């Protein structure tokens, strides 16, 4: 299979007599995907060249030629006018080879005191850092939409569920704000990961650092990093930043999928709590009545890709000896796909939630059925009649059974029927059986009472302003 007539690699082929087998080239090359790092690669190279000139390692004129030439390469790539080559393996060598064509000899000096190992680590960190910023921005937009939903519906009563069985009445606003808290934690995970990843690997060279008198603080600063990484072995072999990004993305995707699932349930014919706008629904090619929540279903499913990417990269990294191994080239496609998926899901969820119509009458009717105020009745017996909660629970259970038998709800039972279950029950208990009173009574901090919800809405409006 070996094609001995091919010449060895122009970048590293000094000790090779023949070129690689075609299949070797196919498994080795990363240009098909890492071309996405072109802007980061050129930015990193320009910072490196400027530093090499400032430290006297390169002449100013060579560094200038390199810097200018790299800008030409950048505009060629951006114009879609760049001859990407698989034989040149990756973005780093594609850019450098093109620079050689453009400016000649000085191009060969750019790689002084650098290796592709610290180069790729730097490029990829810059890319992931941008994605963390994008996730933070997208999550902020989604949170604003959810807070607006919560403000509108701070006192809309709906059933709260446990086990997807009607549990107690809650407010729409409270439900929306639960997701605000979840997405806020997601946002802080990306912020936190961003802080930790913001150290610069450039200048770690192949693994051991370099004998050239480089200034790593200068390149770190030029690329917006807080400081250079303190250990060159760690600098080239660390992919924690990608793992942290993927972990944060996976948790965020879990939250998106939970909200998506609620939208699927709530928009079904059996619930009709919400109606998705036409912009976010699709029809069926055979059943004319259908309005399918495809976007919500797809968001629900996307966690599979994001978590899959996390599992894949964790698996690549486990057990890898220090420092760089080619295994690590497998980091990029996973992170690219997870980032694209997450950004799309966040944008779709933000759009769906801002265009959502809520059927408040349906919400309230559902909240009032299913004995949702049974706990309020039991609490009343504890508060007003001094019963131990366990006894109150038992009395209430008997009344639920009676209502169930009669096919009515708790407030429909007569006072005689209530008194027969427990003599301490009086007319006054009816007030707590109404769903509005039920939610209004839940004034504990973080509870579902509209006042509490409005307080949280105000707090978040301040934080998100
Ligand atoms: N394409 C490589 C990657 O993505 C760049 C680093 C290659 N380094 C090396 N020593 N072969 O990991």
TrEMBL record:
Pathway: Amino-acid biosynthesis; L-arginine biosynthesis; L-arginine from L-ornithine and carbamoyl phosphate: step 3/3. One of its GO terms (cellular component) is cytosol. Keywords: Amino-acid biosynthesis, Arginine biosynthesis, Cytoplasm, Lyase. It is found in: Cytoplasm. It is an enzyme of class 4 (lyase). Residues 14-308 form the Fumarate lyase N-terminal domain. The keyword rRNA-binding does not apply. One of its GO terms (molecular function) is argininosuccinate lyase activity. Its EC number is 4.3.2.1. It catalyses: 2-(N(omega)-L-arginino)succinate = fumarate + L-arginine. InterPro entries: Arg_succ_lyase_C, Argininosuccinate_lyase, Fumarase/histidase_N, Fumarate_lyase_CS, Fumarate_lyase_fam, Fumarate_lyase_N, L-Aspartase-like. SUPFAM superfamilies: L-aspartase-like. It holds the Pfam family Lyase_1. One of its GO terms (biological process) is L-arginine biosynthetic process via ornithine. Residues 371-440 form the Argininosuccinate lyase C-terminal domain. HAMAP family: Arg_succ_lyase. Belongs to the lyase 1 family. Argininosuccinate lyase subfamily. This is Argininosuccinate lyase. The gene is argH.
């Amino acid at each position: 299979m070996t094609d001995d007539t091919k010449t060895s690699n122009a970048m590293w082929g000094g000790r090779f007599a023949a070129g690689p087998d075609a299949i070797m080239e196919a498994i080795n090359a990363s240009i098909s995907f890492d071309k996405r790092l072109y802007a980061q690669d050129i930015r990193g190279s320009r910072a490196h060249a400027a530093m090499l000139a400032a430290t006297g390692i390169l002449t100013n004129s060579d560094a200038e030629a390199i810097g200018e030439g790299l800008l030409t390469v950048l505009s060629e790539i951006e114009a879609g006018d760049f001859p990407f080559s698989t034989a040149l393996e990756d973005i780093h060598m594609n850019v450098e080879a093109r620079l050689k064509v453009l400016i000649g000899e000085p191009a060969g000096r750019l790689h002084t005191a650098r290796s592709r190992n610290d180069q790729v680590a730097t490029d990829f960190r810059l890319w992931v850092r941008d994605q963390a910023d994008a996730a933070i921005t997208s999550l902020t937009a989604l949170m604003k939409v959810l807070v607006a939903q919560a403000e509108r519906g701070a006192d809309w009563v709906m059933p709260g569920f446990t086990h997807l069985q009607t549990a107690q009445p809650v407010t729409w606003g409270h439900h929306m704000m639960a997701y605000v808290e979840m997405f806020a934690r997601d946002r802080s995970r990306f912020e936190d990961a961003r802080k930790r990843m913001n150290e610069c690997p450039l200048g770690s060279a192949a693994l051991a650092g370099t004998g050239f008198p480089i200034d790593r603080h200068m390149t770190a600063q030029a690329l917006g990093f807080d400081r250079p990484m303190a250990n060159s072995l760690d600098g080239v072999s660390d992919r924690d930043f990608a793992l942290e990004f993927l972990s944060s993305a996976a948790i965020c995707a879990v939250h998106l999928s939970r909200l998506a699932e609620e939208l699927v349930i709530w928009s079904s014919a059996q619930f009709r709590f919400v109606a998705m706008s036409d912009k976010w629904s699709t029809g069926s090619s055979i059943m004319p009545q259908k309005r399918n929540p495809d976007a919500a279903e797809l968001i629900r499913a996307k966690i599979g890709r994001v978590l899959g990417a996390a599992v894949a990269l964790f698996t690549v990294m486990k057990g890898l000896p220090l420092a760089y191994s080619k295994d690590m080239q497998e980091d990029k496609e996973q992170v690219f796909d997870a980032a694209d998926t997450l950004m799309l899901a966040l944008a779709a969820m933000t759009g769906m939630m801002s265009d959502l119509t809520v059927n408040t009458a349906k919400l309230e009717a559902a909240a009032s059925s299913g004995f949702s105020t049974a706990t309020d009745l039991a609490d009343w017996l504890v508060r007003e009649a001094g019963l131990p909660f366990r006894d109150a629970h038992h009395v209430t259970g008997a009344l639920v059974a009676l209502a169930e038998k009669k096919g009515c709800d708790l407030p429909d039972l007569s006072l005689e029927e209530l008194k027969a279950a427990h003599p301490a029950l009086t007319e006054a208990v009816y007030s707590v059986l109404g769903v509005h009173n039920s939610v209004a009574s839940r004034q504990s901090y973080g509870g579902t009472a509209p006042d509490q919800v409005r307080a949280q809405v105000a707090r978040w409006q301040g934080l998100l302003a």
